[in-house]
């Protein structure tokens, strides 16, 4: 990974830390097996990188203005796209046609003639030779918080900020995605890619994430 990419990641890490460093539970953190699990915030970013939903849950978190949240969403969206392009991926599986067939005759091993209208064969058009799918950033952790990212098939990103001790954050953020599908996408008055203002979605998310 290049030096410039690490610089962008450091800037993102610093920006994410701004809203969490003033939490009293974090400032007075003592290593203890009975530390309470804390969910700090949930952000939803549309496929264009725009912030369409933000909600904080733990009291005492330092407040950010709307511009800071927009910068946070846009920065993470860009770094997430970069991480997908530079993420190492295993080589594609070899083509089945490259395996010799011992039972075939010598004449069968000759390449079949192509019609003039056919383009030359290449691996780009062969689905088995395509580059495997990469997900980008899924988790980012510091001493104060953990960021878990889930991207839906349509490109919507769900960012869940929790304490580092919070277990099963991948399950929690996927459950938030299910609520988004049930209460936002099924709402006939909601327009795609627009800010989410669905009262029932607010209630069910708060009831799920804010638990004793």
UniProtKB/TrEMBL annotation:
Coiled-coil stretches noted in the UniProt entry, renumbered to this chain: none
Entry-linked SMART domains: Sybindin (SM01399)
Pfam families, alphabetized: Sybindin
Domain of life (superkingdom): Eukaryota
Annotated localization: Endoplasmic reticulum; Golgi apparatus, cis-Golgi network; Golgi apparatus
One GO BP annotation of this record: endoplasmic reticulum to Golgi vesicle-mediated transport
Quaternary assembly: Part of the multisubunit transport protein particle (TRAPP) complex.
Protein name per UniProt: Trafficking protein particle complex subunit
Organism: Friedmanniomyces endolithicus
Origin organism lineage: Eukaryota, Fungi, Dikarya, Ascomycota, Pezizomycotina
